[in-house]
Amino acid sequence: MVKIGYLGPRGTFTKLAVDTAFNGEDKLAFNTIPECIDAVNNEEIEIGVVPLENAIEGTVQLTVDYLVHQVRLPIIAEIVVPIEQHLLVSPDFNGSLSELAEVHSHSHAIAQCHQYLHKHLPEAAINFTSSTGKAAEVVSKTGKKIAAIGNKLAAAEYGLKIYQENIHDYPNNHTRFAVLAKQREDVRIKHEQDGEKTTLLITLPSDYAGALHQVLSAFSWRKMNLSKIESRPMKTGLGNYFFIVDVNQPYDAVLFPGVKAELEALGCNVTVLGTYPVYQMKL
C-alpha cells in the first residue's frame, strides 16, 4: 500500500486535502513540513502533501525554501482546496465571545481571520501553533475558555464545537497543496484534472542590467501565460534572489527548451521543479 505523508496532526487542512484527493492509502501525519519532505526523500513514504500557497496570505515560504535549498523533490501534482475557517471551542463552553481568553491556530489561519479577531476578540491572547489541527488538539486538552481556528474535520477529530462558522475575512479563500513523490506512478488522484502547470526555478546573473525584463520577454513573445512569479532570497547575501515562475501549461519539447536556451544565454540558471496536473477540489 502506498504511504502518504502530510502536515499533521489530524484535522489539518493538509489532511483534508489528502482525504479529498486520495482513497484508502496509508496516511501518516508529520509534525512539520520539513519532516514530511524528508520522509519522501528518505523513501520512508512514497508521497508527501504540503501546503504551497494560500489565496489570502500568499506563499508558504517554508515549503518553497526547503524544496529549493534543502531537498529537491519534483512536484507531481497540485491540489487546490477551498478553505473555511471556523471558531472552535470546548463542547461545554456556552459563554460569550468576550469570555474567551485565548485563540490558538497556525499563523496563516490567524492572518486569514484578522478582521474577525480584531472586531470580536480584541482582548484575547493570540497563540501560534504548528498547524490548525494542533490548535484544535490544544483546545481539546485544555480549559473551557480558549478557542481554536480550524476546519470541520478538526472539530470532529477532537470533539470540539463550532462556535461560529466561516470567520475568514475573504470568501474566496483557497490553498494550493504540492504533491511530492520520486515516482510519478505512485500518485493516483481520484478526480479529473482541471489543467496543467509547470514550475521553474530561475536565478538571474547579478551583474546583468534588465535581466528580469528579458526573462519575462522570453515567455511573453512565445505567448506562454504565467500565473505567478515570485522572488525569494538565495541566502547567499543581500540582493541575491531566485525566482519561482508558474507557467500554465505542461512542459513540451519546443517552447520550454527554447525559453531555457534563451535565458541561459543571458547567464540565468533554469531548473524545472515540476510539470504536473492541477486538481480543483470541492468539499
UniProtKB/TrEMBL annotation:
Pathway the protein acts in: Amino-acid biosynthesis; L-phenylalanine biosynthesis; phenylpyruvate from prephenate: step 1/1
Stretches that traverse the bilayer: none
EC numbers for this chain: 4.2.1.51
Domain Prephenate dehydratase, residue spans: 3-182
Residue span(s) of domain ACT: 200-277
A GO term, aspect molecular function: prephenate dehydratase activity
Reactions mediated catalytically: prephenate + H(+) = 3-phenylpyruvate + CO2 + H2O
Pfam families per UniProt: PDT
InterPro entries in alphabetical order: ACT-like_dom_sf, ACT_dom, Chor_mutase/pphenate_deHydtase, Preph_deHydtase, Preph_deHydtase_CS
Keywords: Amino-acid biosynthesis, Aromatic amino acid biosynthesis, Lyase, Phenylalanine biosynthesis
NCBIfam families linked: PRK11898.1 (NF008865)
PANTHER family cross-referenced by the UniProt entry: PREPHENATE DEHYDRATASE P PROTEIN, PREPHENATE DEHYDRATASE-RELATED
Protein name, UniProt field: Prephenate dehydratase
Gene name as annotated: pheA
